[in-house]
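Justification of computing resources. Each target in the renewal requires a structure prediction run like the one illustrated here; the chain below, 334 residues long, is used simply to show the kind of job we budget for.
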Amino acid sequence: MTAVLVSYDKYIENMRFIPTWKLGSKFVKLCYAVQALVRTWLLLKFDKRISIVHIHGAANASFDRCRMFIHMAKKYGKKVILHEHAADFVEYYEGASHKQDIVATLRMCDCLIVLSQSWKDFFSSIGMEKDKIHVLNNIVSPPQHCSYKRTNDGRLHLLYLGEVSNRKGVFDLLNAVADNKAYFADKLILRIGGNEVDGDIKSYIRKNGLESFVSYEGWIKGQRKIDCLNWEDVYILPSYNEGLPIAILEAMAYGHPVISTPVGGIPEIVKNDENGIIVQPGDINAIAGAIKFYVENQTAIKKHGECAYNVVQAFFPEKVFHNLENIYKQVLAD
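Resulting structure tokens:
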């Protein structure tokens, strides 16, 4: 969601964005939510130009915060768009004791934006009016090719960018590499970037003797991220649940194949043996096999990468913002 909002801020002039959450203690999070409520209340009360309140949210506590802003916006007679990014909304909903309240909150909105057809089908199945649900692609910036020149090291350059967590499958990836260390040691370079949520990834790499070809580089952004996207041959994200990851779209924008799982909206854009390889979550042998395929089939990297680039053009800013403008017009007309 953060990556989407960064893209919106880049392309929408004078965008007024009010963040409602900040990493920190419970007190810090509470204070941040309160200041967001106050700022939103002031805008709604005194700025008569506002017609639509566009809320970006997820599941769990994020959805609970969204509920407060939805009620406030409707109280002041504004149209409300809820833009749902949650990868784990199904789990959140199925485990909730207040399902009717969740659906009632969704139905208060004038529009629900989701990331894929599969998510539209889900929200429709739990009671959201189907004609209020719109699929809008996540936005991804066109590639920025840099002066990076790859040395002819004869190795597959594999990149993982994202939360370093069990949910994202990063330790399944490391297990697959560690189990086949003798094979990969002189054929692969794996770079991992992201904020640590589960485990100690540096200790895992060290204990399994992977330092010579696997590196953890922390959070990667800005020019470093562009350099990584130019450096890689193949992107990998073996997640257990997702919405539609920006990281996959970014890799495809740079013409790279993707190894991932059939969760969320991923199978709608990553097609097995066309622009990547689909493996089941947790299938360590399949993850290793997919990596080996690209190690041994260099021509497939180019072919699949070209297909990936063709698919992702529908996610470039001009197309996405044109579709978003049409959604705004429809919401205002209803």
